[in-house]
Amino acid sequence: MTTLPLEKITFPLLRKRRSLRRYAFQPGLALAWLVMLTVALWALFPGWFTGYSPTEGIAGAQRLAPDADYWLGTDQLGRDLYARIVYGAAHSLSGAVIAVGLGLVLGSLFGLLAGAIGGWLDSVVMRSIDVLLAIPGLLLALSVIILLGFGTVNAAIAVGVTSVASFTRLVRSEVLRVRHSEYVEAAYGSGGTFFSVLWRHILPNSLTTVFAFAALQFGSAILAISTLSFLGYGAPPPTPEWGLLIAEGRNYIATAWWLTTFPGLVVVFVVLSANRISQSMRGTER
Are 69 and 23 in contact (CB under 8 A)? Predict the structure, then answer.
């Protein structure tokens, strides 16, 4: 009687176990999606979650601690902190979408051209990317925002510019991997033109990892935009942007700890949720 080699028995079992683990219920991933869904609803329909104004204060309600009426307390002008956090989701999330979208589009374009065409164009693009990567991200963002001016949109553009280099390197590496695969060579052998093969085969098969990286960059963009707002380069007062809320509350941290704690926790939870979703996307790819 013949016996099968051990690797022929164990490897299929390991692959099956990994596939079952991939589709099993994951509480951490479910919590991450719940956080992102809640914040997205805050941004789209803030009136569903609070009846207070994010910019108008309430007389005699300055710096009240969290209670049944004001769930997260009030600030120095008597404005409900929970309402400001809810309405601030639109500014923070829209800025992150602009930043990630800018980095994704420009980085994909440069990486696709460099990886697909190669030659002198690849050298010029990648040497330029090396120069961008040599500059600290915060310094580059500050330089861009000083040129463009202050505001949430300009801060988002500045953060997006800093992420172009990372997207370009990732897209180029994926394009080089896909370009030398057998089905791409078969497409060329079947009479496919350069642009048709690029559009139908190389680009779609190169974007899976890029989308996972974009989810990771979404959390990083929220953190970067909040940092710029905290430093005074983002949205002007009284805009309820999360980084600006933390900056305004730092002067009262000894007497009103909730002014910095709750906005900071929201930023932390959103960033961690985006990172967890990105990790699950990379796991699905594998």
Answer: no
Q: 112 lies in a domain?
A: yes
pLDDT in tens, 166-177: 898 888 888 888
* CATH number, domain with residue 131: 1.10.3720.10
Q: What is the pTM of this model?
A: 0.80
Measure the CA–CA gap between 139 and 127, rounded to whole angstroms.
20
116-127 in b/e form (b: 16+ CB < 10 A) is beeeeebeebbe
Instruction: Assign 145 to helix, strand or coil.
Output: helix
Q: Which residues pair with 80 in a beta bridge?
A: 74
Is 16 a residue whose pLDDT tops 60?
Answer: no
Do the domain assignments include residue 3? no
Range(s) of the domain holding residue 100 = 28-45+72-283
Q: What is the residue whose two structure tokens read 């078969």?
A: 186
How many domains, the chain? 1
Q: How far is the C-alpha of 219 from the C-alpha of 276, rounded, in Å?
A: 10
Is 53 contained in some domain? Answer: no
Tens digit of each residue's pLDDT (9 = 90 or more) over 199-219: 777 777 777 788 888 888 888
Calculate Rg over the CA atoms of the chain: 24
Instruction: Flag whether 56 is in a domain.
Output: no
pLDDT at 37 > cutoff 90: yes
In angstroms, the first-to-last Cα distance of the chain is 37
pLDDT of residue 254: 83
How many residues are recorded in the chain? 286
